[in-house]
Design goal:
Helices cover 46% and strands 20% of the residues. By secondary structure, the chain is of the alpha+beta class.
C-alpha cells in the first residue's frame, strides 16, 4: 500500500513539464459539441471547487439535445473538469483551443477532434475504475493484508493500461506524466478511504503498521494539482489533512474536560499547518480547509471566528476566500437563538410531520440512519434519559432518519430504535426541501440538536444521550 516511489519520481520532472502546458494564460475559446442526440437531458460542464467539492459550472443545458448542440466558452489555462449528463459524470481535461466532439453510446463516452487523445484516456480509465468498484464495492471489510493486495492490483491495472495506451497513442510527455500521476492518486485515494473507514487515520502514529505509516506519508504536496482542479487530489488532501493535522488523541474520560480539549483543536491544527514547509498556494489551501473542516464539526465558535478573521487578513485574494465566506455566513443562521430551519418528514403512518408542529415544546432531535453504527449504539441510553422526563409533556424526542429506503427505516424503528418519541423519515430532496443534512450543514451522523419552545436553536451540536450532562441541559431548559 506504499506508492510514493514512482509518484515522487514524476514530481521533479512534472513541475518543469507542467509549466509548459499550465502556463497558457492567453484566453482562447474551447468548443465541445455532441455527435449523438441526448434525450431528456440535464447537461453540465463544471470544474470541482477544491475547498468543498462544489460545482463551478462552466456551461449548462437542459431538454432534448440535438447532435448540433455545442458549448463554446473562454478558457485561459488548462483544467480538469466534469461532463455531467443526467447526473452521470465523466472526467474531462481541457486546454485553451480544444475543439472536442463527444459521442455517448450505452453510457460510454468517446471523443474526437482536438484534445480527443487525452480525454479518451480519461474515459477508458474511468470505466476501468468503475468496474473495479463494482467488483470490490465493500473493499473496506477486507483485512489489511487482503486490502493491500487489492490496492496493488488496481495500481497494476492502471499502470498496464497507461503503458499500453501511451505506446500506441501519441501524447506529449507532460500529459503522459500528469495522467500517470493522476492514476497513482486514484490508488492513494482508495487506500486513504480504507484507512479512514477502519479508523487508522487519527490513531496514534506509534500504533500503526509500517505500511499504513508509509501510505499516510506518501501524499504529494504539489500546488499544480490544485491549480488544475484535479478532483481526486482534493479528496487526497482532505484525508491527509484530517490524519496529519486535525486528529488528536483524547485520553480524558470526563465530558467537561473532553469538551475543553476539543475546543482547542482548531487552533492546534492551524499551528501545525503554519509550521509545515509548504508552497504558499498549499499553505493558503490548508488554512482555508482547516476553517472549513472545524466549522462543519464544531459550528461557529470564538476560536474559529478568530482563525477566519486572521485568514482574511493573510490571504485577501485567495481563490478560496469567496466560497469560505459564503460557508462562514451560512453558519450565522445556525447560531444559538436563531429560528430553527424547518424539518419535514413522514411518520410511520405516512403522515407529514414538521418541526414547526412541535412549537411550544422543547425538542431534542436525533438525526440517524439504520446503517449508522454510532447512531444505533446511542439508542439504548434513551431508556434512562427518557425516564427522567416520563411525566413531562413539554419535551419531545424527535428522531429524524435519513434512510433512503423507507423499508429499512421502518424495520430499524420497530427493532432497534427507542419506542418513546416521534419517528419520521426525512423527506427526499426537492426544489422546495433540501433535506436536513444540507439545511443544518451536517457533515455526517450521528448528530443531535436542541430546539427551544419558541422554535429557536439552542444547540446544533448537542451532546448524545449517553452523557450525563444531556439530562441536566434538558432539565435546565424546561
Amino acid at each position: 500500500m506504499h506508492y510514493p516511489k514512482k509518484l515522487l519520481l514524476f514530481l521533479g520532472l512534472l513541475s518543469a513539464l507542467l509549466s509548459l502546458s499550465c502556463q497558457k494564460t492567453v484566453p482562447e475559446s474551447v468548443q465541445i459539441s455532441f455527435g449523438t442526440p441526448i434525450v431528456s437531458s440535464e447537461l453540465k460542464l463544471f470544474r470541482t471547487h477544491m475547498l468543498n467539492y462544489g460545482e463551478m459550472v462552466l456551461e449548462r443545458a437542459e431538454g432534448n439535445l440535438e447532435d448540433s448542440t455545442s458549448f463554446t466558452f473562454v478558457l485561459n489555462k488548462s483544467t480538469f473538469a466534469t461532463v455531467s449528463i443526467n447526473e452521470t459524470n465523466f472526467p474531462v481535461f481541457l486546454e485553451p483551443g480544444y475543439d472536442l466532439r463527444l459521442e455517448l453510446n450505452d453510457n460510454k463516452i468517446r471523443y474526437s477532434g482536438q484534445g480527443a487523445k487525452v480525454n479518451n484516456y480519461l474515459a477508458m480509465t474511468n470505466t476501468l475504475v468503475e468496474q473495479f468498484f463494482q467488483s470490490n464495492g465493500e473493499f473496506w471489510r477486507l483485512d489489511l493484508s487482503s486490502f493491500e493486495q487489492l490496492a496493488s492490483n488496481l495500481q497494476a491495472e492502471l499502470t498496464q493500461f497507461h503503458q499500453a495506451y501511451t505506446d500506441t497513442t501519441s501524447l506529449s510527455l507532460p500529459l503522459q506524466d500528469l495522467l500517470q500521476s493522476r492514476n497513482e492518486l486514484i490508488s492513494l485515494d482508495l487506500s486513504q478511504q480504507y484507512l479512514v473507514i477502519n479508523q487508522f487515520v487519527g490513531a496514534r502514529r506509534d500504533s500503526l503498521p509500517e505500511s499504513i505509516k508509509q501510505t499516510i506519508a506518501s501524499v504529494p504536496l504539489e500546488a499544480q494539482y490544485l491549480d488544475l482542479h484535479l478532483p481526486v487530489y482534493a479528496r487526497v488532501l482532505d484525508l491527509y489533512l484530517r490524519g496529519e493535522m486535525q486528529s488528536f488523541p483524547i485520553e480524558e474520560d470526563e465530558p467537561e474536560k473532553v469538551d475543553a480539549l476539543q475546543a482547542t483543536f482548531p487552533r492546534l491544527s492551524h499551528e501545525l499547518i503554519r509550521k509545515k514547509d509548504l508552497d504558499p498556494a498549499l499553505q493558503d489551501y490548508f488554512w482555508a480547509k482547516n476553517i472549513d473542516h472545524w466549522l462543519g464539526l464544531q459550528s461557529l465558535s470564538p476560536t474559529i471566528d478568530s482563525l477566519y478573521q486572521e485568514y482574511k487578513r493573510a490571504y485577501p485574494n485567495s481563490p478560496y476566500g469567496d466560497e469560505l465566506a459564503l460557508y462562514y455566513q451560512d453558519w450565522q443562521r445556525l447560531l444559538a437563538g436563531r429560528p430553527a430551519p424547518e424539518v419535514v418528514g413522514l411518520d410511520l403512518h405516512g403522515d407529514t410531520v414538521k418541526l414547526s408542529d412541535l412549537k411550544g415544546k422543547l425538542v431534542y432531535m436525533d438525526v440517524w440512519a439504520s446503517w449508522c453504527r454510532p447512531c444505533l449504539a446511542e439508542f439504548p441510553y434513551y431508556e434512562s434519559l427518557q425516564a427522567e422526563f416520563r411525566e413531562e409533556e413539554a419535551i419531545e424526542f424527535l428522531f429524524v432518519s435519513i434512510d433512503q429506503d423507507r423499508g429499512d427505516w421502518e424495520k430499524a424503528v420497530r427493532s432497534k430504535a427507542p419506542s418513546r418519541g416521534l419517528h419520521i423519515n426525512d423527506l427526499k430532496k426537492s426544489e422546495d426541501y433540501a433535506g436536513i443534512i444540507s439545511i443544518y450543514n451536517m457533515w455526517g451522523i450521528s448528530q443531535r440538536l436542541i430546539i427551544d419552545q419558541a422554535g429557536n436553536i439552542v444547540d446544533t451540536k448537542a451532546p448524545p444521550p449517553s452523557l450525563a450532562k444531556t439530562k441536566e441541559i434538558l432539565k435546565s431548559l424546561l
